[in-house]
DNA sequence: GTCATGG
DNA sequence: CCATGACAACGCCCT
DNA sequence: AGGGCG
């Protein structure tokens, strides 16, 4: 078949705007992804091989996540000039629908030796190739391999390879890379304009006047780390600048809100090229020949250094009337990248790499850059706050210090010998040593001049005796000092002067101490929230377990869905958690609801996210890692796992060998619930005699459970014997309707008193647990009075529990305040 | 329900 | 991509 | 040892 014959045969070029493919496009290795809203929405992935675009239809599109293996159906080759096509294929034509140019760029095969048309064709014929994409969205190695060449349609898989560009959480913009439009906008016939970015479609964006924003700050962290939830940027050493534009008005503001429009006029001018209203955040730097930021040159800007002045922007906080503070960071950066025109000279996008902080940090060290900034990929922007969502990790450790004096110069040195330094500690200035190196002549003079008006007689800080001769100055000027560590008396070791910090107030100069990285990684409260919850030491659960298959039917007869279970536990968490916390959970999972099969799962080793607490327990068959349900998020995680019924141990950590309640399980077989209540009232009577508290709940079915909270001082064996003893008394009083017979067939018409439910690792359905029974019943606390009056246990269910709680509250709330001493009770018998 | 695997 | 299958407890009593 | 039971 002649080249492109199949392509041409399917099309009428007088009726479709698609190119006819008569103009070969040179020898480049281009690739393109077109999003095509045809009869089925899909993506077309095309690689240029010679004078054709070898093409695959990829229903799910192309991911940055190596775990995603997406089907790619090989389709006919397209002409090279098709790579520029974006528009509408009219109805009635082949592939009718809207085409959006989703990504484009160049690629190179894995091994450059094989980088010939013939070699690539050969690999495609053989059904396997790997290549590196350099697109506007897609980056890194991808592999494409055939899995099935039977039938007329070849089935291939396209998958991201594991490399530094792999990213499980990366979400790509769905806008065109040439027009900035969405599929809908193209379909409506909109033309590419600068207004194309429809910020109003983003859920977290909200309309707002242009805000005044002070920069969000980063916390110093001790060491680099790898984490898929984080991204990493170069830490630039310059001035933190907020840039704004509204109509014709453009501003550059320092962190203290001072204007820098004049000083950085080249940048200020260039803001005009960005055709939007915006507030963006970034760092102004002067780059030296090696591309490193040169702080001193930034301070003494001259014509020469002006040419090396750049503004690295890394955040977008407001755009065209919408506040973006709450939009996830990576999305803000994506938008930032979109609004920056390609022809900027002075303003540059500060790119990041995902996940691989350690490698990135090594590169920072090799390049002798100051360090890196780690940011939580999904974090919000907190203006003016120092947050653990942003961390700075430094290769060396610069420290700012306040100048409090200087010593006289010696020999040929002019101006001064050394600067005396101080740092704020707990609100007071404290002497921090002196620095005598790192100045060039101009800086020496400049600082000297600036210090003259600040001269004072009294030293602003207490200093060692040997520095008494120094000239003191008022603590107004801040300097950046590089040093290697702290001496025992709080001075900097091997200090070098790196520049004045006119952008910082002396009050802000404090000793920076790195927080341990694990603290930041486990930190899940935001600054604002943290202030509110400072008192309560219990960890706040901000993890939000996803609910998968929300509409799966769990109770077909009642049409109760999985999401109803999830919602029930969401609502019940507060009252339920005290009965679950610290207790190993035997998970009874029922992913297919009441009709499907359930299975127990105790060991969750490696199966649950790391924020879920577990406890490792020795058992006969080795060691088992039990889940602990310590917070609402874990409860919801369990719900999503199909743990409809909750089965906590009768003991809690750390006393897993000592039960903290004894259970009396009244399990009826073919006997009326009235009789069960009668026996339970019998227990109530007995407990009154023994001065024991009475906590009873429905089982969720036809049984009742009586719990006796005990001091965790006795073994499971002793707990079980104790239960048996009391049940024997009941058995004597209700001989004709109770039984110790284990086999159900032999206890028909009786209530089984199951003391064996007391034991190590034994569980019962928790109070307030849903049960997989008709009507989605709930194991519900009841009072002795209710038992005497008579109740219908089926009335306690997923629908009625909120109302029940409103009416009677949590009847068991005092349970753990009334722990009984088994030994003392035995003496009464 | 999740994970791994194969077509 | 989709389909399919594997996998997911344990202690104790009784015979 | 294996099945039943919760």
Describe this structure in words.
By secondary structure, the chain is α+β, with helices and mostly antiparallel strands. It folds into five domains: 5-187, no CATH class; 201-394, DNA ligase/mRNA capping enzyme (D-amino Acid Aminotransferase, Chain A, domain 1, 2-Layer Sandwich), CATH 3.30.470; 397-508, OB fold (Dihydrolipoamide Acetyltransferase, E2P) (Beta Barrel), CATH 2.40.50.140; 553-640, no CATH class; 661-826, DNA primase, PRIM domain (Alpha-Beta Complex), CATH 3.90.920. 19% of the residues lie in helices and 30% in strands. The chain has 18 helices and 43 strands. The strands form nine sheets. It has an eight-stranded antiparallel beta barrel. Strands 10, 13, 14, 15, 16, 17 and 18 form a seven-stranded mixed beta sheet that branches. Strands 22, 23, 24, 25, 26, 27 and 30 form a seven-stranded antiparallel beta sheet that branches. Helix 12 packs antiparallel against helix 13 and helix 14 (673-689) crosses helix 15. Residues 23-27 and 522-541 have low confidence and may be disordered. The protein binds three DNA strands through strand 4, strand 34 and strand 35.
Describe, in short, the structure shown:
The chain is an alpha+beta fold. Helix 12 (562-576) packs antiparallel against helix 13 (632-640) and helix 14 crosses helix 15.
């Amino acid at each position: 078949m002649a080249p492109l014959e199949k392509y041409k045969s399917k099309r009428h070029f007088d009726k479709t705007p698609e190119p006819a493919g008569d103009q070969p496009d040179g020898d480049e290795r281009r690739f393109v992804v077109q999003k095509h809203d045809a009869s089925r929405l899909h993506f077309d992935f095309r690689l240029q091989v010679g004078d054709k675009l070898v093409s695959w239809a990829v229903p799910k599109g192309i991911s940055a996540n190596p775990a995603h293996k997406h089907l790619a159906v090989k389709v006919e080759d397209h002409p090279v000039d098709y790579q520029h096509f974006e528009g509408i294929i009219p109805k009635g034509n082949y592939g009718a629908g809207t085409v959006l140019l989703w990504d484009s760029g160049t690629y190179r095969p894995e091994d450059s030796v094989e980088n010939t048309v013939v070699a690539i064709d050969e690999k495609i014929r053989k059904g396997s190739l790997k290549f590196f994409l350099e697109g506007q969205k897609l980056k890194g190695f991808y592999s494409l391999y055939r899995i099935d060449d039977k039938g007329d349609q070849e089935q291939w898989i396209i998958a991201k390879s594991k490399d530094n560009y792999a990213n499980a959480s990366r979400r790509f913009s769905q806008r065109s890379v040439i027009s900035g439009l969405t599929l809908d906008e193209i379909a409506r016939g909109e033309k590419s304009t600068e207004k194309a970015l429809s910020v109003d479609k983003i859920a977290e964006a909200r309309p707002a006047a242009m805000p005044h924003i002070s920069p969000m700050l980063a916390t110093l962290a001790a060491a680099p780390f790898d984490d898929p939830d984080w991204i990493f940027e170069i830490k630039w050493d310059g001035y933190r600048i907020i840039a704004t534009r509204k109509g014709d008005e453009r501003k550059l503001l320092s962190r203290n809100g001072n204007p820098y429009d004049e000083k950085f006029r080249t940048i200020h001018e260039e803001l005009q090229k960005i055709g939007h209203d915006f507030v963006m955040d970034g760092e102004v730097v002067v780059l030296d020949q090696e591309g490193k930021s040169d702080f001193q040159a930034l301070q003494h800007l001259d014509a020469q250094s002006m040419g090396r002045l750049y503004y690295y922007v890394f955040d977008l906080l407001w755009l065209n009337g919408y506040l973006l503070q709450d939009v996830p960071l990576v999305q803000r950066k994506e938008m930032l990248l979109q609004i920056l025109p390609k022809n900027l000279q002075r303003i540059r996008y500060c790119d990041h790499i995902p996940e691989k902080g350690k490698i990135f940090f090594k590169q920072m060290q090799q390049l002798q850059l100051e360090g890196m900034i780690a940011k939580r990929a999904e974090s919000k922007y907190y203006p003016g706050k120092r947050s653990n969502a942003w961390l700075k990790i430094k290769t060396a450790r610069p420290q700012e210090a306040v100048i409090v004096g200087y010593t006289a110069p010696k020999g040929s040195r002019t101006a001064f010998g050394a600067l005396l330094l101080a740092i704020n500690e707990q609100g007071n200035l404290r002497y921090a040593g002196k620095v005598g190196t790192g100045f060039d002549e101009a800086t020496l003079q400049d600082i000297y001049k600036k210090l003259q008006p600040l001269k004072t007689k009294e030293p602003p800080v207490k200093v060692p005796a040997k520095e008494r001769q120094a000239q003191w100055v008022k603590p107004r000027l801040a300097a950046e000092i590089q040093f290697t560590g702290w001496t025992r008396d709080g001075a900097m070791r091997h200090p070098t002067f790196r520049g004045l910090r006119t952008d910082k107030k002396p009050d802000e100069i404090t000793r920076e101490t790195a927080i341990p990285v694990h603290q930041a990684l486990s930190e899940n409260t935001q600054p604002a929230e943290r202030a509110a919850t400072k008192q309560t030491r219990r960890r706040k659960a901000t993890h939000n377990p996803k609910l998968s298959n929300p509409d799966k039917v769990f109770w077909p007869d009642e049409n109760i869905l999985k999401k109803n279970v999830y919602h029930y536990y969401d609502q019940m968490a507060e009252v339920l958690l005290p009965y679950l916390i610290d207790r190993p959970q035997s998970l009874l999972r029922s992913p297919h609801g009441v009709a499907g099969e359930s299975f127990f799962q105790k060991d969750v080793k490696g199966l649950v996210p790391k924020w879920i607490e577990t406890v490792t327990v020795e058992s006969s068959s080795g060691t088992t890692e039990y889940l602990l349900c310590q917070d609402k998020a874990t409860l919801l995680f369990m719900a999503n796992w199909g743990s409809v019924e909750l089965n906590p141990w009768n003991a809690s950590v750390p006393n897993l060998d000592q039960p903290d309640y004894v259970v009396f399980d009244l399990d009826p077989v073919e006997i009326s619930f009235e009789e069960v209540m009668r026996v339970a009232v019998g227990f109530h009577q007995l407990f009154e005699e023994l001065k024991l508290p009475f906590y009873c709940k429905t089982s969720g079915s036809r049984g009742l459970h009586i719990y006796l909270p005990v001091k965790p001082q006795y073994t499971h064996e002793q707990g079980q014997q104790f239960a048996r003893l009391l049940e024997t008394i009941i058995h004597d009083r209700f001989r004709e309707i109770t039984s110790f017979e284990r086999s159900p067939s032999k206890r028909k018409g009786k209530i089984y008193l199951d003391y064996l439910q007391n034991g190590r690792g034994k569980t019962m359905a928790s109070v307030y647990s849903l049960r997989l029974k008709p009507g989605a019943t709930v194991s519900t606390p009841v009072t002795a009075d209710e038992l005497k009056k008579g109740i219908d246990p089926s009335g306690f269910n997923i629908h009625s529990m909120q109302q029940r709680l409103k009416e009677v509250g949590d009847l068991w709330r005092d349970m753990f305040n009334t722990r009984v001493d088994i030994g003392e009770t035995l003496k009464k018998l």
